[in-house]
C-alpha cells in the first residue's frame, strides 16, 4: 500500500484521535489567531496525503477528498477556535495557555472531522464524488463562516453538515431537528443624549438616567406584548452605563444588549419595534436616542431532507436519538445554510458543565463514533445527490 502512514493511523484511529484532541486542547487559540492549530492540521492532513486547498485564509483551511471527479460535492464543517476562559479542570491535557480554553468543544469538532477525513481517504476509490472538510476559524466571533464563504471554497457544494458537542447528552446520543437549532444573534447599542446639570436642579437638564431606565423597561415589553407566546425570542439588556459621580446629572447614557430570534419575520420586526419605543421614550423626555444595530449570524435552518438522512444514519449507527429544543445561542454554521441545504447536529459528549464553563469537559469516547458517523453520512449524501443527477 502506497499510503502506509494512513494505514498506521487507521489501525490505531481512536488512540490517534484522542492524542490529537488532547494536543489541541493543550494549545487553544482564540478566533482568527488559530495559526498553530492550522499548521498542525495541515501537517496531519499532509501526512495522510489528504489534499489541502490553496485558499487565501490566514487561519483555518479546507481539505478535499475526491473519488469520482464527475460526482457531486458535499462539505463537512468543524470549527477550530477556543475561548478567553481560564480552564479549571484537572486533566493532564488541560490548557497550557493561561486565559484560553477549548470550552466549547471545538477541539472535539475538529478531531471528529479529521477522523472522518482519514476514514474517507482510505475509502477514496469507492467515493462517488467529493467531500470537502472545512476547518473553520473564528466561530466564536460569529464571522468565520463568512471568511470561508468568500474564498469560494464551497461553490458547487450540494449539501453541508456540521456538529456541536452537547454537554447535556450522554455519549452515544445525538439530537437534531428540522428548522432552527440555534437562533439569529444580533447585538444592539443605544446612545442617549440628555442635558447635564447639577443634581440639585434637575429641572434645568434632561436626565439620561431616567430616559435609559424607561427605555430598558419598554424594551422588555416587546417580547412579552408584541411577539406571540408561541414564538421564541428574547431581548436582553446586558450593559447600562451613565454618569460618574453622585452630585451631577450626566449628559449621556449607554445601553447595550442582544436580541435572539428563530424566525426571520420576528428578527425583522423586533428592531423596528425597538426603534419606535426608543424614539417615543426619548421624545417624551426631550432627549435624543440612537439605536445602532449589529447583525450576527441568522438562525440555523436544518432542511427536512437532510435532517431525515442525518437521523437515519444516526439510527443505523445505534445513536440514541434525542429531541432537542432550539437554543437561543448562536452558531455561524447558519451562514452556510443560507446558501447550501444541510443539517447541524448535536452530539452527546457526556454530561458536563455547560458550554463556555471553565470546567466544561468532553468525553473522549465520543470522538471515534462521531468520526464514523460523518464518514457514513458523507457517503450516504454523495449517493443521494448522485441519484438526483
Ligand atoms: Ni461552539
The helix/strand order is HHHEEEHEHEEEEHEEEHEHEHEH
The stretches of 5 or more residues where confidence is low (pLDDT under 50) are: none
Question: Which percent bin holds the helix content?
Answer: 25-40%
Continuous helix count = 10
Bound molecules: nickel (II) ion
Trace the largest sheet across and list its strands.
1-2-4-3-5-14-6-13
Strand content: 15-25%
- Rg for CA atoms: 24 Å
Largest sheet: 8 strands, mixed
| Number of DSSP E strands | 14
Distance between the termini: 34 Å
Average pLDDT metric = 97
Question: What descriptive keywords fit this protein?
Answer:
four-stranded antiparallel β-sheet, alpha/beta, binds nickel (II) ion, 389 residues, elongated
Describe the protein.
The two termini are 34 Å apart. The model has no long low-confidence stretch (mean pLDDT 97). This protein has helices spanning 4-11, 13-26, 35-47, 106-122, 144-149, 208-226, 264-285, 304-316, 333-339, 367-388, and strands at 51-52, 61-66, 73-79, 130-136, 157-166, 173-175, 184-193, 197-198, 233-242, 248-249, 252-261, 288-295, 320-322, 342-348. The longest helix has 22 residues, at 264-285. It has an eight-stranded mixed β-sheet, sandwiched between helices. With 389 residues, it is an alpha/beta fold. Helices cover 36% and strands 22% of the residues. It is built from ten helices and 14 strands. The site of nickel (II) ion (NI) has 4 residues, from loops.
